[in-house]
C-alpha cells in the first residue's frame, strides 16, 4: 500500500470518523462537554446563541437553569483505549494525557508484549472502545505486526504509511464504528501524529472546530533534507504584526516548549531567516480559531 499524501490521510481520517451523537444529560453532568444542537441562553433581549459544538461551561449551565432547563443535549465524547507496545512508560502516559487534553474523559491504558498474539488479544479486549491508539516498536519495517493484529481482529486497514517525517508508518484502521490508529513511539512523531490526526477525529466527533492554522516567519535559517513532507515542532512569539517561528529539536524535552508545528515541503534546501512557513497551533486553549 503506497504512502499517502498527509492531506489525503487527514481527509480519510475525517471521512471515517462517525458523526457526533447527542445525549440528554443534567446540566451539572453536562459541564465540560459540547452542545449537540444550537442553544439560546438568557432572557429579556440578553439571549446569547451558542452554536453546536460550543463547550458547556458553568456559566452556560447557570443561564440554561435560569430559563427553566433541567438538562441539555450534549455530544458524548469517544471512549479511548491506549495500547502501548514498549517498555518506555512515558508512551502510555503521554498518549493518555493527550487524549484528556483533546476532551476525552474515558481513557484506559494497556501494555502489550511485542507479539502478534498478545497484541491481537488486547485489541479484542478493547473492542468496545470508540477509538484505539496503538504505539510502539511494532511499526518498524522489520516488525510491522500491528496491522496484522488489527486485521486478525476483524479490522480493515484504511491506510498504512503517510509520506511525512516523522510518522511515515502511521496507520488508520476501522472495525465497525471503531477507529484504530497506529502511531510512532518517538515522542516528536507521536505528538505530531496525535495532534494532526487523532485530535482531528476527536474534534469532529465532538463537533469542535478544527485546530487553528497560521502563517509565520522563521526566526533563523532552517535546513531541510527529506523526501517527504517534514513536520517540525516550534515555539512561536507574536509581535510587530507577524508570528516568529523558532523550530525545535526532536525529543520529549524540546516538546515542552512547543506550541505549534510547521509543515515543510519535501526536498533538500535551506530556508533563510524570515522565510514564510505554514503551521498549526498545538496550544488549544490559547490558539483555537487563530487561522490564516
Quick rundown:
The protein is 26% helix and 33% strand. Helix 1 packs across helix 7, helix 4 packs parallel to helix 7 and helix 5 crosses helix 6. It is built from 8 helices and 19 strands.
Explained architecture:
- The longest helix has 19 residues, at 187-205.
- By secondary structure, the protein is an alpha/beta fold.
- The two termini are 34 Å apart.
- The protein has three domains: 6-17 and 77-205, MoaB/Mog-like domain (Molybdenum Cofactor Biosythetic Enzyme, Chain A, 3-Layer(aba) Sandwich), CATH 3.40.980.10; 22-75, Molybdopterin biosynthesis moea protein, domain 2, CATH 3.90.105.10; 213-287, Beta-clip, CATH 2.40.340.
- Helix content is 26%, strand content 33%.
- The protein has eight helices and 19 strands.
- A hairpin with a 2-residue loop joins strand 15 (229-239) and strand 16 (242-247).
- The protein has a six-stranded mixed sheet, with helices on both faces. Strands 13-16-15-17-19 form a five-stranded mixed β-barrel. A three-stranded antiparallel sheet has the order 1-5-2.
- Mean pLDDT is 89; it is low at 284-292.
Sheet having the most strands: 6 strands, mixed
Adjacency order of strands in the biggest sheet: 7-6-8-12-11-9
Q: Mind telling me the CATH class of the largest domain?
A: Alpha Beta
Helix share, percent: 25-40%
Q: What is the number of beta strands?
A: 19
Q: How many separate domains make up the residues?
A: 3
Tally of individual helices: 8
Structural class: alpha/beta
- The low-confidence parts are 284-292
CATH architecture of the largest domain: 3-Layer(aba) Sandwich
Radius of gyration: 20 Å
Overall morphology: globular
- Beta percentage is 25-35%
H/E series: HEHEEEHEEHEHEHEEEEHEEEEEEEH
Amino acid at each position: 500500500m503506497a504512502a499517502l499524501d498527509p492531506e489525503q490521510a487527514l481527509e480519510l481520517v475525517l471521512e471515517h470518523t462517525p458523526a457526533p451523537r447527542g445525549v440528554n444529560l443534567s446540566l451539572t453532568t453536562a459541564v465540560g462537554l459540547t452542545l449537540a444542537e444550537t442553544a439560546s441562553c438568557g432572557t429579556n433581549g440578553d439571549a446569547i446563541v451558542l452554536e453546536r459544538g460550543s463547550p458547556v461551561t458553568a456559566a452556560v449551565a447557570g443561564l440554561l437553569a435560569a430559563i427553566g432547563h433541567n438538562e441539555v443535549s450534549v455530544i458524548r465524547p469517544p471512549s479511548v483505549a491506549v495500547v502501548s507496545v514498549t517498555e518506555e512508560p512515558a508512551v502510555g502516559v503521554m498518549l493518555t494525557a493527550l487524549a484528556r487534553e483533546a476532551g476525552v474523559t474515558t481513557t484506559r491504558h494497556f501494555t502489550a508484549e511485542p507479539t502478534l498474539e498478545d497484541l491481537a488479544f488486547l485489541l479484542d479486549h478493547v473492542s468496545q472502545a470508540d477509538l484505539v491508539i496503538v504505539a510502539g516498536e511494532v511499526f518498524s519495517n522489520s516488525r510491522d505486526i500491528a496491522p496484522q493484529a488489527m486485521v486478525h481482529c476483524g479490522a480493515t486497514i484504511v491506510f498504512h504509511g503517510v509520506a511525512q517525517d516523522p510518522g511515515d508508518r502511521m496507520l488508520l484502521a476501522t472495525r465497525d464504528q471503531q477507529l484504530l490508529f497506529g502511531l510512532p513511539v518517538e515522542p516528536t512523531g507521536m505528538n505530531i501524529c496525535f495532534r494532526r490526526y487523532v485530535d482531528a477525529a476527536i474534534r469532529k466527533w465532538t463537533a469542535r472546530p478544527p485546530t487553528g492554522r497560521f502563517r509565520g516567519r522563521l526566526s533563523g535559517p532552517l535546513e531541510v533534507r527529506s523526501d517527504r513532507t517534514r513536520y517540525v515542532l516550534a515555539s512561536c512569539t507574536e509581535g510587530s504584526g507577524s508570528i516568529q517561528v523558532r523550530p525545535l529539536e526532536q525529543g520529549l524535552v524540546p516538546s515542552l516548549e512547543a506550541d505549534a508545528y510547521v509543515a515543510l515541503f519535501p526536498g533538500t534546501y535551506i530556508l533563510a531567516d524570515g522565510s514564510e512557513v505554514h503551521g498549526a497551533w498545538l496550544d488549544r486553549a490559547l490558539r483555537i480559531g487563530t487561522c490564516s
